[in-house]
Design goal:
The chain is mainly α and about 290 residues long. Among the domains are: about 40-110; about 175-285, Alpha Horseshoe (Serine Threonine Protein Phosphatase 5, Tetratricopeptide repeat). It is about 85% helix and about 0% strand. It comes from Marinomonas sargassi.
Length: about 290
């Protein structure tokens, strides 16, 4: 029992000595920490920064090398394209020269002088052809304009003549002497020699002054101008009746009646047919 107590006492003493030692060590470390002026982790931060700078420098060098490589590649491709373009252009020029030379040989041209002469000749021929073509067109246009101008002038002249003739017919209706009427009819015939009405009325006036042969001639002329004009046959029959050409007169009366049935009413009142009224063929005309 006593021995056990001694062991417990020794153990207690050892524990106290251990705590005392630890206390002394901790106090020493605390004093050492208090004596520190800078943090212990600063070297680690500096190391980290140096590693990052090194990494950035290595990345920059790698990028520089990559850019240099790409620039060199681009320059090489540009040079290749320039060389290909130069080669293609040179080949095309030679092809053109060869084709031109072949054309010259085929056309028989031996020099630039021949080319110039042939080009001038072709140009002159083309210009001459175009000139002739346009000259023909201008000639056609001039002919058309000339014809149109003549038509306009003729129309204006016809209008003027129609106005004059109308006024002359009005004067003829107012004149009382046969000679003045004949003069007016002559003026109308000067303007229009083929005026069948003027010829017929002049023949009628000549019958009134006993110019029977002249009147017959004028009626024949009127019939030549217009074979469908009934009054011309009527006046011719009057002249033939006065000249005692009775059969011819009956025939012309029949033609006049065939062309105009309105003359049937004047058949018995016409004074120049008095010598025909006893003839059977005339009576046959009046009986129709």
């Amino acid at each position: 029992m006593m021995v056990l107590d001694i062991r417990l006492l020794v153990g207690a003493l050892l524990v106290c000595m251990s705590f005392g030692a630890f206390a002394q060590v901790d106090e020493a470390e605390v004093e050492n920490i208090d004596e520190l002026k800078a943090p212990l982790y600063e070297p680690f931060i500096e190391r980290y920064i140096l590693d990052e700078i090194k990494s950035l420098r290595q990345g920059q060098q790698a990028m520089k090398a990559e850019v240099a490589e790409k620039v060199a590649t681009a320059k090489l491709e540009s040079s290749d394209r320039a060389l290909r373009y130069t080669a293609d252009t040179t080949n095309n020029i030679f092809y053109i020269i060869t084709a031109a030379a072949s054309m010259l040989v085929l056309l028989g041209w031996k020099s630039l002088r021949d080319i110039r002469d042939n080009v001038e000749s072709i140009t002159e021929k083309r210009v001459e052809t175009l000139t002739e073509e346009y000259a023909k067109r201008l000639s056609v246009i001039e002919e058309a304009l000339k014809e149109r101008s003549e038509q306009i002038v003729a129309a204006q002249q016809d209008i003027s003549n129609s106005t004059i003739i109308h006024s002359l017919w009005m004067r003829a209706g107012l004149e009382k002497t046969e000679q003045e009427k004949i003069n007016i009819y002559d003026q109308i015939l000067e303007i229009n020699p083929n005026d069948v009405e003027a010829l017929t009325y002049k023949a009628d006036t000549l019958l009134d002054i006993d110019q029977d042969s002249w009147a017959l001639s004028l009626t024949n002329q009127a019939i030549e101008c217009d074979s469908e004009y009934a009054m011309a046959y009527w006046q011719k029959a009057c002249a033939e009746a006065k000249l005692e050409l009775y059969s011819e007169a009956i025939g012309d009366i029949q033609k006049a009646l065939d062309l105009s049935r309105t003359l049937q009413d004047e058949l018995l009142t016409e004074s120049y047919f008095e010598s025909l009224k006893e003839r059977d063929d005339f009576k046959a005309l009046t009986a129709v």
